[in-house]
Amino acid sequence: MRAFLLALALLCSAPLSAFASDRCDPRVPTETVDLGDVRLAYQSIGSPKDPTLLLIMGLGGQLIHWPDEVVQALCQQGFRVVRYDNRDVGLSAWRVPTPSANLTYEVIRYRLGLPVSAPYSLTDMAWDALRLLDALHVERAHVLGASMGGMIAQHVADLAPQRVTSLTLVMTSSGAEGLPAPSDSLLKLLARREASSREQALEQQADLLAALGSPEVKDDRQQLLHQAAVSYDRAFNPEGVQRQMLAILAEPSRVDLLNRLDVPTLVIHGTADPLLPVMHGVHVAAHVRGSELKLIPGMAHRFQEAFKEPLLSAVLPYLRAHQASGHVAQL
User: Fold this and answer.
1) 284 in helix, strand or coil?
2) Which phi and psi angles does 58 have, rounded to 5°?
């Protein structure tokens, strides 16, 4: 009995931060949920009793591309953080007969202003997100999307505004005509997905990561290659990335969608974004009624170490301001 009381006393005197650290360990097992035509791989970090924060990654990105330190910091603020692989990348799958697609041909059609054919749409990917919430018995969630994930998040908020407690859009776009375009060289790097070996694939990915980084940060090539290797060894599906790219190209302008959004919205964009220059973020915020806009000087189109703190400083106060309404998020 004395041993039990001693253990209880030690337990009660342990720092709360230690419990938060254990509860918010981002190294939880990856689970899968079968949604019929799609199987999604996801992680749930934190307590199911806390408000859910759903993270939606961008083109070709995997759930591991959300920095663990950022996920842990978000969880320690009292959120259950759910991150997942979009269909066709990572450990997720799109399980239908795969139609043939010629990305080069469709890119030409896109540049000529002609319709682009895609095997699925960003709206389909938004339904994936909502069905994942269904599977996790989450009625309402905070939704944070980056790049293509921000485009998907826009559709989530449009399809089911009653299920979105708050919306955070990072380094994303409205898809409207006339916005600044990335350079041809960057687009070629983004579209370059054929590699004859693992080594070539890693070099190509490291080149892309470097091109998406901030000019204010000097990248370590070996670190970029290591990041590329971790992603490659977890999953490598260049055809899936091409299909995701087609979904983006086939998407019409979302200005009308943004104009009708009626959920609390924060837009975050870097001033040095080479893929979606800063006016993309400004344009999104201008069309979402009541939205807040945070520009991060020097941030580009990657979650680089130098900008994790500024990013959290922009996101956390906003999420905390809307956190209370998320406590009724579980069915």
Assistant:
1) helix
2) -90, -170
Whole-angstrom Cα distance, residue 234 to residue 197? 16
Paired tokens of 160: 């089911």
Phi-psi domain of 13 (left: phi exceeds 0; alpha: psi -120 through 50; beta: other): alpha
Q: How far is Cα 112 from Cα 80, in angstroms, rounded to an integer? A: 44
Quote the pTM value: 0.91
pLDDT in tens, 212-255: 999 999 999 999 999 999 999 999 999 999 999 999 999 999 99
Q: Give the Cα separation of 5 and 316 in Å (integer).
A: 38
Residues 27, 314, 212, 184, CA torsion sign = positive
The CATH classification of domain 20-181+238-322, taken from the options 3.30.70.100, 3.40.50.720, 3.40.50.20, 3.40.50.1820: 3.40.50.1820
